[in-house]
Amino acid sequence: MKLLLIIAIGLLVGTSLMWLADFEPGFVLLKYGSWSLETSLIVFIVAFLLLLVTAYFILRTLVLVKRAPQRVANWQLLQRHKRANKALTNGLITLEEGRWADAERLLINNATNSDTPLLHYLAAARAAQKQDATQRRDAYLALAHQTTPGSEIAVGVVQAELQIAASQKEHALATLQHLRELAPKHPHVLHLLQQLYQDMNQWQGIQDVLPDLRKRHVLAAAEVETLSSDAAVGQLQSALLNQDWALMSSLWQQLPSKMRQSKLLLNPYVAGLIQQGEQAQAVELIENFLHSEWSDALIYQYGQIKHGDSLKRLAKAEKLLINNERNPWLLLTLGRLSLANKLWAKAEEYLRASLDHGATGETYQVLAEVLMAAGKKEAATEMYKQGLAMMVQHTPITI
What we know:
Distance between the termini: 93 Å
CATH class of the domain at 323-394: Mainly Alpha
Largest sheet: 2 strands, antiparallel
Number of strands: 2
Low-confidence stretches: none
Protein backbone atom coordinates (compact mmCIF):
# COMPACT_ATOMS: atom_id res chain seq x y z
CA MET A 1 0.00 0.00 0.00
CA LYS A 2 2.81 2.39 0.88
CA LEU A 3 4.66 1.54 -2.35
CA LEU A 4 1.56 2.19 -4.43
CA LEU A 5 1.15 5.58 -2.77
CA ILE A 6 4.77 6.52 -3.56
CA ILE A 7 4.35 5.45 -7.21
CA ALA A 8 1.14 7.45 -7.49
CA ILE A 9 2.82 10.54 -6.07
CA GLY A 10 5.79 10.07 -8.44
CA LEU A 11 3.51 9.81 -11.46
CA LEU A 12 1.62 12.90 -10.37
CA VAL A 13 4.81 14.92 -9.94
CA GLY A 14 6.21 13.67 -13.28
CA THR A 15 3.00 14.54 -15.12
CA SER A 16 2.98 17.98 -13.54
CA LEU A 17 6.56 18.62 -14.58
CA MET A 18 5.87 17.51 -18.15
CA TRP A 19 2.88 19.83 -18.30
CA LEU A 20 4.95 22.73 -16.97
CA ALA A 21 7.70 21.97 -19.48
CA ASP A 22 5.24 22.13 -22.34
CA PHE A 23 3.39 25.19 -21.02
CA GLU A 24 6.38 27.29 -19.91
CA PRO A 25 9.83 25.64 -20.02
CA GLY A 26 11.55 28.58 -18.26
CA PHE A 27 15.23 29.52 -18.40
CA VAL A 28 18.19 28.99 -16.02
CA LEU A 29 21.71 30.38 -16.43
CA LEU A 30 24.54 29.40 -14.12
CA LYS A 31 27.84 31.25 -14.49
CA TYR A 32 31.07 30.97 -12.52
CA GLY A 33 34.04 32.85 -13.90
CA SER A 34 34.45 31.92 -17.55
CA TRP A 35 32.30 28.88 -17.07
CA SER A 36 28.53 29.04 -17.78
CA LEU A 37 25.61 26.64 -17.96
CA GLU A 38 22.33 27.40 -19.70
CA THR A 39 19.29 25.12 -19.50
CA SER A 40 15.57 25.09 -19.10
CA LEU A 41 14.01 25.39 -15.64
CA ILE A 42 12.40 21.96 -15.83
CA VAL A 43 15.66 20.21 -16.70
CA PHE A 44 17.42 22.07 -13.91
CA ILE A 45 14.78 21.03 -11.38
CA VAL A 46 14.95 17.40 -12.47
CA ALA A 47 18.76 17.41 -12.37
CA PHE A 48 18.72 19.03 -8.93
CA LEU A 49 16.29 16.47 -7.56
CA LEU A 50 18.37 13.63 -8.98
CA LEU A 51 21.44 15.16 -7.35
CA LEU A 52 19.69 15.33 -3.99
CA VAL A 53 18.52 11.72 -4.23
CA THR A 54 22.01 10.56 -5.20
CA ALA A 55 23.57 12.51 -2.34
CA TYR A 56 21.04 10.99 0.09
CA PHE A 57 21.84 7.45 -0.98
CA ILE A 58 25.59 8.09 -0.85
CA LEU A 59 25.33 9.49 2.69
CA ARG A 60 23.06 6.63 3.76
CA THR A 61 25.53 4.11 2.35
CA LEU A 62 28.40 5.78 4.22
CA VAL A 63 26.41 5.69 7.47
CA LEU A 64 25.56 2.02 6.97
CA VAL A 65 29.20 1.19 6.25
CA LYS A 66 30.29 3.08 9.36
CA ARG A 67 27.71 1.33 11.54
CA ALA A 68 28.30 -2.10 10.08
CA PRO A 69 30.99 -3.20 12.62
CA GLN A 70 28.78 -2.20 15.56
CA ARG A 71 25.77 -3.94 14.05
CA VAL A 72 27.81 -7.06 13.46
CA ALA A 73 29.08 -6.88 17.03
CA ASN A 74 25.52 -6.45 18.35
CA TRP A 75 24.35 -9.39 16.28
CA GLN A 76 27.20 -11.55 17.55
CA LEU A 77 26.42 -10.46 21.15
CA LEU A 78 22.76 -11.35 20.65
CA GLN A 79 23.76 -14.78 19.38
CA ARG A 80 26.05 -15.30 22.38
CA HIS A 81 23.21 -14.31 24.72
CA LYS A 82 20.90 -16.76 23.00
CA ARG A 83 23.49 -19.52 23.33
CA ALA A 84 24.04 -18.60 27.00
CA ASN A 85 20.31 -18.69 27.76
CA LYS A 86 20.02 -22.05 26.05
CA ALA A 87 23.05 -23.29 28.02
CA LEU A 88 21.42 -22.10 31.26
CA THR A 89 18.27 -24.08 30.50
CA ASN A 90 20.25 -27.19 29.51
CA GLY A 91 22.54 -26.78 32.52
CA LEU A 92 19.62 -26.63 34.95
CA ILE A 93 18.05 -29.69 33.32
CA THR A 94 21.36 -31.54 33.52
CA LEU A 95 21.74 -30.50 37.15
CA GLU A 96 18.33 -31.92 38.02
CA GLU A 97 19.24 -35.12 36.19
CA GLY A 98 22.21 -35.56 38.51
CA ARG A 99 24.96 -35.10 35.92
CA TRP A 100 26.89 -32.66 38.08
CA ALA A 101 30.09 -32.32 36.02
CA ASP A 102 28.24 -31.78 32.73
CA ALA A 103 25.94 -29.24 34.37
CA GLU A 104 28.88 -27.33 35.82
CA ARG A 105 30.62 -27.20 32.43
CA LEU A 106 27.52 -25.98 30.59
CA LEU A 107 26.80 -23.30 33.16
CA ILE A 108 30.32 -21.92 33.52
CA ASN A 109 31.31 -21.93 29.84
CA ASN A 110 28.48 -19.54 29.01
CA ALA A 111 28.18 -17.48 32.19
CA THR A 112 30.11 -14.45 30.92
CA ASN A 113 27.85 -14.14 27.86
CA SER A 114 24.60 -14.39 29.78
CA ASP A 115 22.17 -11.65 30.74
CA THR A 116 21.83 -13.42 34.10
CA PRO A 117 25.30 -14.61 35.15
CA LEU A 118 24.05 -14.81 38.74
CA LEU A 119 21.85 -17.81 37.88
CA HIS A 120 24.73 -19.54 36.09
CA TYR A 121 27.13 -19.17 39.01
CA LEU A 122 24.62 -20.12 41.70
CA ALA A 123 23.61 -23.27 39.83
CA ALA A 124 27.28 -24.07 39.14
CA ALA A 125 27.99 -23.73 42.87
CA ARG A 126 25.34 -26.34 43.60
CA ALA A 127 26.82 -28.64 40.93
CA ALA A 128 30.31 -28.20 42.39
CA GLN A 129 29.09 -29.05 45.90
CA LYS A 130 27.50 -32.24 44.60
CA GLN A 131 31.02 -33.20 43.52
CA ASP A 132 32.46 -32.26 46.97
CA ALA A 133 34.39 -29.44 45.31
CA THR A 134 33.86 -26.82 48.01
CA GLN A 135 36.66 -24.56 46.78
CA ARG A 136 35.11 -24.30 43.31
CA ARG A 137 31.73 -23.80 44.95
CA ASP A 138 33.00 -20.82 46.95
CA ALA A 139 34.73 -19.39 43.86
CA TYR A 140 31.47 -19.51 41.89
CA LEU A 141 29.60 -17.83 44.75
CA ALA A 142 32.20 -15.06 44.81
CA LEU A 143 31.78 -14.57 41.05
CA ALA A 144 28.00 -14.47 41.45
CA HIS A 145 28.36 -11.64 43.94
CA GLN A 146 30.87 -9.75 41.77
CA THR A 147 28.87 -9.95 38.54
CA THR A 148 25.52 -8.92 40.02
CA PRO A 149 25.36 -5.81 42.23
CA GLY A 150 22.79 -6.00 45.01
CA SER A 151 22.87 -9.80 45.15
CA GLU A 152 24.62 -10.16 48.51
CA ILE A 153 21.55 -11.46 50.35
CA ALA A 154 20.59 -13.96 47.61
CA VAL A 155 24.15 -15.24 47.25
CA GLY A 156 24.58 -15.39 51.02
CA VAL A 157 21.42 -17.44 51.50
CA VAL A 158 22.53 -19.96 48.86
CA GLN A 159 25.99 -20.07 50.43
CA ALA A 160 24.55 -20.76 53.88
CA GLU A 161 22.23 -23.49 52.54
CA LEU A 162 25.15 -25.19 50.77
CA GLN A 163 27.36 -24.91 53.85
CA ILE A 164 24.65 -26.48 55.99
CA ALA A 165 24.21 -29.28 53.46
CA ALA A 166 27.99 -29.86 53.56
CA SER A 167 27.93 -29.99 57.41
CA GLN A 168 30.03 -26.81 57.58
CA LYS A 169 27.94 -25.55 60.46
CA GLU A 170 30.38 -23.01 61.86
CA HIS A 171 30.87 -21.45 58.42
CA ALA A 172 27.11 -21.42 57.84
CA LEU A 173 26.55 -19.77 61.22
CA ALA A 174 29.03 -17.00 60.39
CA THR A 175 27.36 -16.48 57.00
CA LEU A 176 23.87 -16.27 58.48
CA GLN A 177 24.90 -13.96 61.30
CA HIS A 178 26.43 -11.62 58.71
CA LEU A 179 23.25 -11.77 56.63
CA ARG A 180 21.18 -10.97 59.70
CA GLU A 181 23.27 -7.84 60.23
CA LEU A 182 22.57 -6.82 56.62
CA ALA A 183 18.87 -7.75 56.66
CA PRO A 184 17.57 -8.13 60.25
CA LYS A 185 13.99 -8.67 59.07
CA HIS A 186 14.65 -11.21 56.32
CA PRO A 187 12.31 -14.14 57.16
CA HIS A 188 14.26 -16.90 55.40
CA VAL A 189 17.53 -15.82 57.02
CA LEU A 190 15.83 -15.90 60.43
CA HIS A 191 14.38 -19.35 59.71
CA LEU A 192 17.72 -20.78 58.59
CA LEU A 193 19.43 -19.26 61.62
CA GLN A 194 16.85 -20.77 63.96
CA GLN A 195 17.20 -24.22 62.39
CA LEU A 196 21.00 -24.06 62.57
CA TYR A 197 20.99 -22.91 66.21
CA GLN A 198 18.64 -25.78 67.00
CA ASP A 199 20.82 -28.29 65.17
CA MET A 200 23.90 -27.04 67.02
CA ASN A 201 22.09 -27.00 70.40
CA GLN A 202 22.87 -23.29 70.77
CA TRP A 203 19.82 -22.58 72.89
CA GLN A 204 20.75 -19.01 73.78
CA GLY A 205 20.95 -18.21 70.08
CA ILE A 206 17.43 -19.59 69.63
CA GLN A 207 16.17 -17.43 72.47
CA ASP A 208 17.77 -14.38 70.82
CA VAL A 209 16.11 -15.01 67.46
CA LEU A 210 12.70 -16.04 68.81
CA PRO A 211 11.28 -12.50 69.15
CA ASP A 212 11.98 -11.81 65.47
CA LEU A 213 10.54 -15.18 64.45
CA ARG A 214 7.36 -14.29 66.30
CA LYS A 215 7.21 -10.69 65.06
CA ARG A 216 7.86 -11.58 61.39
CA HIS A 217 5.42 -14.53 61.52
CA VAL A 218 8.14 -16.88 60.28
CA LEU A 219 6.68 -19.65 62.43
CA ALA A 220 3.17 -20.27 63.70
CA ALA A 221 2.47 -19.14 67.25
CA ALA A 222 2.27 -22.75 68.47
CA GLU A 223 5.64 -23.57 66.88
CA VAL A 224 7.22 -20.52 68.52
CA GLU A 225 5.92 -21.60 71.93
CA THR A 226 7.22 -25.14 71.45
CA LEU A 227 10.59 -23.85 70.30
CA SER A 228 10.78 -21.48 73.26
CA SER A 229 10.11 -24.38 75.61
CA ASP A 230 12.69 -26.59 73.90
CA ALA A 231 15.27 -23.81 74.10
CA ALA A 232 14.63 -23.30 77.80
CA VAL A 233 14.93 -27.06 78.42
CA GLY A 234 18.16 -27.15 76.43
CA GLN A 235 19.61 -24.25 78.42
CA LEU A 236 18.71 -25.89 81.74
CA GLN A 237 20.16 -29.23 80.65
CA SER A 238 23.37 -27.53 79.54
CA ALA A 239 23.66 -25.76 82.89
CA LEU A 240 23.00 -29.08 84.65
CA LEU A 241 25.67 -30.84 82.61
CA ASN A 242 28.19 -28.10 83.43
CA GLN A 243 26.97 -27.86 87.04
CA ASP A 244 26.56 -24.12 86.58
CA TRP A 245 24.06 -23.60 89.39
CA ALA A 246 24.13 -19.80 89.19
CA LEU A 247 23.17 -19.91 85.50
CA MET A 248 20.50 -22.52 86.19
CA SER A 249 18.96 -20.35 88.91
CA SER A 250 19.06 -17.27 86.66
CA LEU A 251 17.42 -19.16 83.79
CA TRP A 252 14.69 -20.48 86.08
CA GLN A 253 13.92 -17.03 87.45
CA GLN A 254 13.59 -15.62 83.92
CA LEU A 255 11.00 -18.21 82.90
CA PRO A 256 7.32 -17.22 82.89
CA SER A 257 5.37 -18.79 85.75
CA LYS A 258 3.37 -20.90 83.28
CA MET A 259 6.53 -22.48 81.84
CA ARG A 260 7.76 -23.35 85.35
CA GLN A 261 4.82 -25.73 85.62
CA SER A 262 6.06 -27.77 82.66
CA LYS A 263 7.51 -31.15 83.57
CA LEU A 264 9.98 -30.84 80.70
CA LEU A 265 11.50 -27.84 82.47
CA LEU A 266 11.04 -29.16 85.97
CA ASN A 267 12.99 -32.36 85.27
CA PRO A 268 16.43 -30.76 84.68
CA TYR A 269 15.85 -28.05 87.28
CA VAL A 270 14.89 -30.52 90.00
CA ALA A 271 17.86 -32.72 89.07
CA GLY A 272 20.10 -29.67 89.51
CA LEU A 273 18.55 -28.85 92.88
CA ILE A 274 19.18 -32.40 94.08
CA GLN A 275 22.79 -32.36 92.90
CA GLN A 276 23.57 -29.07 94.62
CA GLY A 277 21.91 -30.17 97.85
CA GLU A 278 18.73 -28.07 97.65
CA GLN A 279 16.64 -31.06 98.71
CA ALA A 280 13.77 -29.21 100.37
CA GLN A 281 13.07 -27.06 97.31
CA ALA A 282 13.22 -30.11 95.07
CA VAL A 283 10.73 -31.96 97.28
CA GLU A 284 8.35 -28.99 97.29
CA LEU A 285 8.41 -28.59 93.51
CA ILE A 286 7.86 -32.31 92.88
CA GLU A 287 5.00 -32.59 95.35
CA ASN A 288 3.27 -29.48 93.99
CA PHE A 289 3.48 -30.80 90.45
CA LEU A 290 2.36 -34.36 91.25
CA HIS A 291 -0.61 -32.96 93.11
CA SER A 292 -2.20 -32.00 89.77
CA GLU A 293 -0.29 -33.91 87.07
CA TRP A 294 1.74 -37.10 86.71
CA SER A 295 5.38 -37.46 85.71
CA ASP A 296 7.44 -40.68 85.71
CA ALA A 297 10.67 -38.68 85.69
CA LEU A 298 9.70 -36.55 88.71
CA ILE A 299 8.45 -39.47 90.80
CA TYR A 300 11.72 -41.25 90.01
CA GLN A 301 13.69 -38.20 91.21
CA TYR A 302 11.49 -38.08 94.33
CA GLY A 303 13.02 -41.39 95.34
CA GLN A 304 16.57 -40.12 94.64
CA ILE A 305 16.43 -37.51 97.41
CA LYS A 306 18.52 -38.77 100.34
CA HIS A 307 17.96 -36.14 103.00
CA GLY A 308 14.89 -34.87 104.80
CA ASP A 309 11.92 -36.69 106.27
CA SER A 310 11.86 -39.82 104.12
CA LEU A 311 9.06 -41.37 106.16
CA LYS A 312 6.81 -38.39 105.47
CA ARG A 313 7.67 -38.60 101.77
CA LEU A 314 6.87 -42.34 101.83
CA ALA A 315 3.40 -41.61 103.20
CA LYS A 316 2.76 -38.99 100.52
CA ALA A 317 4.04 -41.24 97.76
CA GLU A 318 1.81 -44.12 98.90
CA LYS A 319 -1.23 -41.89 98.38
CA LEU A 320 -0.30 -41.76 94.71
CA LEU A 321 -0.87 -45.53 94.42
CA ILE A 322 -4.60 -44.93 94.12
CA ASN A 323 -4.28 -43.94 90.47
CA ASN A 324 -0.85 -45.42 89.69
CA GLU A 325 -0.69 -48.79 91.38
CA ARG A 326 0.95 -50.44 88.36
CA ASN A 327 3.49 -47.71 87.64
CA PRO A 328 7.00 -49.23 87.93
CA TRP A 329 8.67 -45.86 88.65
CA LEU A 330 6.34 -45.08 91.54
CA LEU A 331 6.85 -48.59 92.91
CA LEU A 332 10.64 -48.20 92.60
CA THR A 333 10.48 -44.90 94.50
CA LEU A 334 8.31 -46.47 97.19
CA GLY A 335 10.83 -49.29 97.49
CA ARG A 336 13.69 -46.80 97.87
CA LEU A 337 11.84 -44.75 100.49
CA SER A 338 10.93 -47.93 102.40
CA LEU A 339 14.59 -48.95 102.25
CA ALA A 340 15.61 -45.52 103.61
CA ASN A 341 13.28 -46.14 106.56
CA LYS A 342 14.53 -49.75 107.02
CA LEU A 343 11.13 -51.21 106.20
CA TRP A 344 12.62 -54.27 104.53
CA ALA A 345 9.43 -56.27 103.94
CA LYS A 346 7.54 -53.31 102.51
CA ALA A 347 10.53 -52.32 100.38
CA GLU A 348 10.82 -55.87 98.97
CA GLU A 349 7.09 -55.95 98.20
CA TYR A 350 7.17 -52.65 96.30
CA LEU A 351 10.32 -53.52 94.38
CA ARG A 352 9.08 -56.94 93.29
CA ALA A 353 5.86 -55.30 92.13
CA SER A 354 7.95 -52.77 90.18
CA LEU A 355 9.80 -55.63 88.47
CA ASP A 356 6.50 -57.25 87.56
CA HIS A 357 5.30 -54.10 85.79
CA GLY A 358 8.58 -52.95 84.22
CA ALA A 359 11.87 -54.60 85.12
CA THR A 360 15.09 -52.56 85.02
CA GLY A 361 18.63 -53.35 86.07
CA GLU A 362 18.43 -50.54 88.62
CA THR A 363 15.35 -52.03 90.26
CA TYR A 364 17.15 -55.39 90.62
CA GLN A 365 20.07 -53.60 92.24
CA VAL A 366 17.89 -51.79 94.80
CA LEU A 367 16.05 -55.02 95.58
CA ALA A 368 19.41 -56.75 96.10
CA GLU A 369 20.36 -54.03 98.60
CA VAL A 370 17.08 -54.58 100.47
CA LEU A 371 17.58 -58.35 100.58
CA MET A 372 21.17 -57.94 101.72
CA ALA A 373 20.07 -55.57 104.51
CA ALA A 374 17.39 -58.12 105.51
CA GLY A 375 20.05 -60.87 105.73
CA LYS A 376 18.92 -62.74 102.60
CA LYS A 377 22.37 -62.96 101.02
CA GLU A 378 21.68 -65.75 98.51
CA ALA A 379 18.55 -64.03 97.21
CA ALA A 380 20.45 -60.74 97.09
CA THR A 381 23.24 -62.36 95.05
CA GLU A 382 20.69 -63.70 92.60
CA MET A 383 19.13 -60.24 92.21
CA TYR A 384 22.56 -58.71 91.58
CA LYS A 385 23.18 -61.29 88.84
CA GLN A 386 19.85 -60.68 87.16
CA GLY A 387 20.30 -56.92 87.34
CA LEU A 388 23.81 -57.13 85.91
CA ALA A 389 22.61 -59.41 83.10
CA MET A 390 19.85 -56.93 82.20
CA MET A 391 22.23 -53.97 82.23
CA VAL A 392 24.74 -55.79 79.99
CA GLN A 393 21.97 -56.83 77.65
CA HIS A 394 20.82 -53.25 77.18
CA THR A 395 24.30 -51.73 76.93
CA PRO A 396 25.51 -51.17 73.35
CA ILE A 397 28.96 -52.54 72.53
CA THR A 398 31.41 -49.93 71.29
CA ILE A 399 34.68 -50.72 69.54
